[in-house]
C-alpha cells in the first residue's frame, strides 16, 4: 500500500489528511491509534477504521457513501408482520459487549476473518462507557439473537456492524433503532458500505462531499 502522507502521529489525534486524498477504494491513511480522541475526530470527518490483524490501522472515507435518511426507512410488508409478532423483543444498550462479540464471531460467507480485533473491541467499549457507542439488540426467549452497534455524535449515527442468529433478527433491531433515533432528532445514519440488506431498508448512495456537508450540519 502507498499513501501520499506519512503515518498518522500518535501525538496529534485530531489530524487526518483531507478526505479527497483517499484512493478509489476509499483508503485514506494508516497508523495512529484507536484512542477515543482520535476515533471521535475521525467520525466527525466521516472517516472510520477498518483493518485486519496483520495490517496497520487503516482509515477509510469511501466515495460514494451509503447512508440512510430515517424518514426514508423502508419496511417491507413481510417485516411489518415480523414487527407485529411477539417473538422478538427490542432493547438497547443492555448488552453492548455481547453485541460486539457476536459481530466479531458470527460467520459471514462473503467475509474472511474479522476486523473487530481485541484492540478494536476495547476501543469501542471505552466509547460505550462514555455514552458515545450504542447497541441495538433483538432478544428471543431471553437470548440475544441479533443486533448492531455504532457511534452516535450529534444528530448522526454511524453504524459499525450487525449480526443475526435468527432470520430477520438484525432487521428487527435496525428498524426499531431507526425509529428510536428519529424520536431524538437524528437526521442521518451512516451505513459506510452498500449491501443488499441495507439497500432493502431504504439506504442509498450519496457523494462523499454531500455526506460531509450533512455531517457539518448535523454534528457541527
Order of strands, widest sheet: 5-6-7-8-9-4-10
Helix count?
Answer: 7
Give the biggest beta sheet: 7 strands, mixed
What share of the residues lie within helices? Answer: 25-40%
Report strand %. 15-25%
Averaged pLDDT: 94
Please tell me about this protein's structure.
By secondary structure, the chain is α+β, with helices and mostly antiparallel strands. The chain contains 7 helices and 10 strands. It has helices at residues 36-44, 77-84, 96-105, 118-129, 169-183, 196-199, 208-218, and strands at residues 27-30, 48-49, 58-60, 65-68, 89-92, 133-140, 143-153, 156-164, 188-192, 204-206. It has a 7-stranded mixed β-sheet, with helices on both faces. A 3-stranded antiparallel β-sheet has the order 1-3-2, covered by helices on one side. The longest helix has 15 residues, at 169-183. The mean pLDDT is 94.
Task: Describe the secondary structure blueprint for this structure.
Layout: E1 27-30, H1 36-44, E2 48-49, E3 58-60, E4 65-68, H2 77-84, E5 89-92, H3 96-105, H4 118-129, E6 133-140, E7 143-153, E8 156-164, H5 169-183, E9 188-192, H6 196-199, E10 204-206, H7 208-218
Parallel strand pairs: 8-9
Antiparallel strand pairs: 1-3, 2-3, 4-9, 4-10, 5-6, 6-7, 7-8
